[in-house]
Amino acid sequence: MDRNDRCYQNYIQILKEELKPAMGCTEPIAIAYAAAKARCVLGALPDRLLIEVSGNIIKNVKSVVVPHTGGLRGIPAAAAAGIVAGDADAELEVISHVSEAQVAETAAYLNRAEIEVRCAETPQIFDIRITACRGTDEAFVRIADYHTNIVCVRKNGETLFEKECVKEEAGLTDRSCLSIEGIVDFADSVDPDDVREVLTRQISFNLAIAKEGLRGDYGANIGKTILLHRENDINYRMRAYAAAASDARMGGCELPVVINSGSGNQGITASVPVIVFAEESGKSEEELLRALCVSNLVTTHLKTGIGRLSAYCGAVSAGAGAGAGIAYLKGGRFEMIAHTVVNAVAVTSGIICDGAKASCAAKIAAAVDAGLLGLAMYENGNQFFGGEGIVKKGVENTIATVGRLACVGMQQTDKEIIRLMMES
After folding, report:
1. Could you tell me the domains of the chain?
2. Half-sphere exposure (CA, 13 Å, Cβ side) for 351?
3. φ/ψ of residue 160, rounded to 5
4. Residues 285-294 pLDDT 10s
5. Tens digits of per-residue pLDDT, 195-228?
6. Which pTM value belongs to this model?
């Protein structure tokens, strides 16, 4: 692929758009971002908040610890952190720099402010609307479609900014150019300097939180459990490091993660196993960067047809991406990578997303295991064939089928999951 080719430039831009740093689980952080913007527009500390969010936001905020809040969970805590300590210009790093005094003030604000949370009547899967009031003054901020996409800002009834809510990927680089064959071609031909900054940041951030997850006591300690007595087995280490990073992230660890397709867990799953394998295998920095191009872009390609939020667990796509990246490091190219992806999604496409929480780490371990199994199947001359279940002939046809299953077929499943979660 030529460096001046439009597809080459699109792939570079997609990596820059998708691989962003974020502090904490991205849905509560998006709420904190909207709240920080609302306070900025209001020009004062609000004494009343109305938070209206779509069902999938409720699902992904309900059970995770919000960083820099002293262990608080849920939508009101995320909004309060943004109101009290948020940097409205920092997007998904909105609460990255919070003092101890601000942590205490967040808890105090939660106790004294009037905060109401409602499930929004909205066709958007991703929708956050915050109305912040003080006295007779009122500010309104809405984020829709993806985590940093502010679509409306109002103050005292006057519209300061507004744009149309359209499909989820509006405003982002066209993903229709993505294909497994194109991704492999890009990884082979990319100038490492074009991707070094964004990918070395991913390596640094995501490996750091994985190591912290193995050091600390977070969530259900899935990473530690996997690694117990298996420290010298690379297959277990790849799964354990990825799971441990999620243990820490879901448990409120105050370290940033580089995300993929709007999710820190997906960014972890797509990158950490590849990084661990490259280190074990003595691969060069350039080889690792090329493999991370594969794993990240395969993950994004799979997620494009699914959407940002779904009843379909995003770790499944990222686990397939990780398997593809490891296949690349082993010298595999289109055929090996295509079979790895198809084999992996054939195994784990039934995993549901029931919100962000401690068990995400276990799902990540399962997804990485499926990616490794998919690769091992190909290496041993085995595969799943078109017509078997949801597998179609050709990797792109299988990817399209998975997208349809997750985006269309699981809509009612998603609604039922949210109803069940709201009962608890």
Report:
1. 21-162 (3.30.1330), 174-423 (1.10.4100)
2. 25
3. -90, -30
4. 999 999 999 9
5. 999 999 999 999 999 999 999 999 999 999 999 9
6. 0.91
